[in-house]
């Protein structure tokens, strides 16, 4: 497994208040509305149609450790390391710790490297800080797409190996 990039904490609550946005529940499974979850699902499905990469979004209340270490554990726990070509990507966000990370499995990281995730991770952290949670995730996915399409183009038969729905933990 390979290390990818983690962005520092973001100040979501302050930015939300400044932007006049409503505070969200701290329970991960209730953080996104059904409509927002559907937007994320659509974005993941759109991306996965164009590439062999498999993207999983994970939302947790607290990270409790270094986000990269948490992502390493989740890669195995959530089955991301069991994709056929090791092309899984984990987009990780912790609500209360205000931490985000993007972590790629072996095949992805071999091409992208740590610096390759910088733009996507910075977009994720920045949009989260502004309280634009769904847009943050979708922007991060969209910013990865040119690299993924070029290096991991979709096959005619392109099985969906991971759930498209966000994963929620404690």
Write the layout of secondary structure elements.
Layout: E1 5-7, H1 12-19, H2 28-31, H3 34-49, E2 54-60, H4 67-77, E3 88-94, E4 99-104, H5 106-116, H6 118-129, H7 133-151, E5 167-168
Parallel strand pairs: 2-3, 2-5
Antiparallel strand pairs: 1-4, 3-4
Helix pairs in contact: 3-7, 6-7
Give a brief outline of the structure.
The chain has 170 residues and is an alpha/beta fold. It is 48% helix and 15% strand. It has 7 helices and 5 strands.
Give a structural overview:
By secondary structure, the protein is α/β, with parallel strands linked by helices. It is built from seven helices and five strands, in the order E-H-H-H-E-H-E-E-H-H-H-E. The chain has helices spanning 12-19, 28-31, 34-49, 67-77, 106-116, 118-129, 133-151; strands spanning 5-7, 54-60, 88-94, 99-104, 167-168. The longest helix has 19 residues, at 133-151. The radius of gyration is 15 Å and the shape is globular. The two termini are 23 Å apart. Residues 1-20 have low confidence and may be disordered.
The tally of domains stands at 1
The strand line-up of the biggest sheet is 1-4-3-2-5
Strand proportion, as a percent range, falls in 5-15%
Amino-to-carboxy terminus distance: 23 Å
| SSE-based structural type | alpha/beta
Please mark out the parts with pLDDT under 50 across 5 or more consecutive residues, or reply none: 1-20
Helix tally?
7
- The level 1 CATH classification is Alpha Beta
Helix content: 40-55%
| Level-2 CATH architecture | Roll
Major sheet characteristics: 5 strands, mixed
CATH topology: Diaminopimelate Epimerase, Chain A, domain 1
What is the helix/strand order? EHHHEHEEHHHE
Number of strands: 5
Shape category: globular
**Kindly state the mean pLDDT as a whole number?**
86
Q: Output the radius of gyration.
A: 15 Å
């Amino acid at each position: 497994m390979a290390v990818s990039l983690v962005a520092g904490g973001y100040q979501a609550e302050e930015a939300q208040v400044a932007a006049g946005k409503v505070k969200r529940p701290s329970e991960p499974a209730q953080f996104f509305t059904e409509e927002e979850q559907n937007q994320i699902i659509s974005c993941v499905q759109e991306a996965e149609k164009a590439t062999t990469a498999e993207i999983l979004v994970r939302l947790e209340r607290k990270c409790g450790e270094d986000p990269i270490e948490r992502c390493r554990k989740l890669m195995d726990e959530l089955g991301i390391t069991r994709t056929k070509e090791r092309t899984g990507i984990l987009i990780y966000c912790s609500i209360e710790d205000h931490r985000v990370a993007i972590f790629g499995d072996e095949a992805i990281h071999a091409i992208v490297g740590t610096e390759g995730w910088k733009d996507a991770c910075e977009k994720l952290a920045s949009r989260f800080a502004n309280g634009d949670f769904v847009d943050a995730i979708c922007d991060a996915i969209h910013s990865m797409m040119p690299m993924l399409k070029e290096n991991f183009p979709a096959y005619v038969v392109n099985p969906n190996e991971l759930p498209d729905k966000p994963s929620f933990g404690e």
